[in-house]
């Protein structure tokens, strides 16, 4: 049994490779819900969705978000009606939000809604939201606190990051099976996702970090930072804004209290000794995932830990 | 000042012609909300929308419903997710329902939401829902009572109609300005719409029928029945199912207590004397509206009453 902590696109890419090597039924994915946002009355879960879409083979891999071949007719009309339309909402993508929101309004939990979406998409892999409670990642910029998606999509990650706040974190309980899936796994994988706003959110949910320390599973992470820069997303700005150095070593420090193995890119081999001094094994490999072969190869390295 | 009682497509076509002759600001339209339906969590107002879309020049006139050039990507995806998708929901059309539902959820009335939609579409004409209270037209078929849209769209109007029920009618109050717009008008037009499920619903709202009797306005109707058949829609089945004859005369009887003038098609000239015996003036003309010229010509006949 394998459990993976996942953010969005980077994690989804890695997991595509992993699922060429392990059975869907044996994999549980704990997804980040800190990016979840209410928009036009819908509950949108960007990270849960991109993982599900990618694993179902429906994602637009070139664009890096959304569903392949999606259109934006509804969004165009919403704009015509005078609504704020900075959040990219495809016509097909919208159906997922409609479905999820209807289930939530009927009293189902986000776990149950996510399960229904996965089943409808034909997935046998289990995707668990980290929590069913309200949890919202806010970024402090000069103008004040804004929702992560507002910082990332609307403001195009251009602001100086002065801080990060996880609204709801103190009272957010892990969703059913989250802690259990970590405790019962043989291998826990921390996907190459943003260590602060993707993995950091999951780690902040009560009991998760502790489970990672206590589990008998081997805990392996893949560095999302290669040669001092994130492969995707605003991790560098976020890390720098919070006073972290932007390096594999800095990521390793964040995970040091529970990590057994850390996989870093060949380009960062010079950091190996320094990271090992934190008390973890380090493997160097090519971590860039351009082709499916790249993804499978990286997954193989993880499984061989 | 002119006030029109309107159903869906037939009314919208007529009103397009009327607005070539009168100023938008001088026209108030009272729309049928008996077809309104909750679908996927949205409040959908089919008749209010088709009138607004048509007058804004956005309707798909050929298809007879929806927005021109609309696509159905979201609906396709909802189907893939396992939802019932018999209700035709275009991607652009959806934006109107999202906008309306958000306004209603924020506590605005259907009147206010309709106003916002009209303004956003650039309309200066006033469209009033007949009521802001719950009102639902149900059709009794052999299997029981079904929502009008279920009878009409899902079951393609194929069932024998055993009866019609207006759920909520006894307690539905007219929306603001509805009664007032009838009382203050110089001319009230009953559009060529279904006399039972489009106009009949409006007439059943407390105070509306009485206002039509009391107003000093001239009240003029255009028959939706030509040569024993409706121009559009299931009016014949509905009328027959309720024991009415399908004729201009039968429609005239439904409106007899408040109607001053009734405009019937040349093809029904033989009914003229019979209808006049109900105590109203009758004008015969070509009531078929194929071109914009047809619509304007018919509107001219109404204005000359």
What proportion of the residues of chain A is helical, as a percent range? 25-40%
**Share of β-strand residues of chain A:** 15-25%
Order of helices and strands of chain A: EHEEEHHHHEEEHEHEHHEEEHHEHEH
Shape of chain A: globular
Assembly form of the protein: homodimer
SS-based class of chain A: alpha/beta
Discrete helix count of chain A = 13
Number of strand segments of chain A: 14
Written overview of the protein:
Two copies of one chain form a homodimer. With 305 residues, the first copy, chain A, is an alpha/beta fold. Chain A is 37% helix and 19% strand. Chain A contains 13 helices and 14 strands. Chain A has a seven-stranded parallel β-sheet with strand order 5-2-1-9-10-13-14, sandwiched between helices. In chain A, strand 6 (136-141) and strand 7 (144-147) form a beta hairpin. The longest helix of chain A is centred in the first third of the chain and has 15 residues, at 91-105. The two termini of chain A are 15 Å apart. The model of chain A has no long low-confidence stretch (mean pLDDT 95). The interface between A and B is medium-sized, with 30 and 30 residues.
């Amino acid at each position: 049994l394998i459990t993976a902590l996942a953010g969005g696109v980077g994690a989804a890419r890695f997991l595509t490779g992993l699922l060429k090597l392990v059975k869907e039924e044996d994999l549980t994915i704990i997804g980040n819900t800190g990016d979840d946002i209410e928009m036009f009355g819908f509950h949108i879960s960007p990270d849960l969705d991109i993982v599900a879409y990618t694993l179902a083979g429906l994602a637009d891999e070139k664009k890096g978000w959304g569903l392949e071949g999606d259109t934006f007719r509804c969004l165009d009309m919403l704009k015509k009606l005078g609504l704020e339309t900075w959040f990219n909402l495809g016509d097909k993508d919208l159906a997922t939000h409609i479905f999820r929101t209807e289930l939530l309004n009927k009293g189902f939990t986000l776990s149950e809604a996510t399960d229904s979406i996965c089943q409808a998409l034909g997935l046998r892999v289990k995707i668990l939201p980290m929590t069913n409670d309200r949890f919202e990642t806010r970024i402090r910029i000069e103008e004040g606190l804004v929702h992560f998606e507002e910082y990332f999509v609307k403001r195009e990650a251009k602001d100086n990051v002065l801080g990060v706040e996880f609204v709801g974190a103190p009272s957010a309980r892990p969703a059913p099976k989250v802690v259990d899936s970590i405790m019962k796994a043989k291998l826990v994988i921390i996907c190459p996702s943003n260590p602060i706003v993707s993995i950091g959110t999951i780690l902040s949910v009560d009991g998760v970090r502790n489970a990672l320390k206590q589990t008998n599973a081997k805990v392996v992470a893949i560095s999302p930072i290669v040669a001092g820069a994130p492969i995707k997303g605003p991790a560098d700005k976020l890390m720098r804004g919070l006073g972290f150095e932007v390096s594999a070593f800095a990521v390793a420090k964040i995970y040091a209290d529970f990590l057994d193995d850390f996989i870093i890119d060949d380009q960062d081999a010079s950091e190996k000794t320094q990271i090992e001094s934190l008390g973890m094994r380090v493997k160097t490999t090519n971590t860039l995932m351009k082709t499916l072969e790249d993804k499978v190869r990286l997954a193989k390295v993880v499984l061989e830990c």
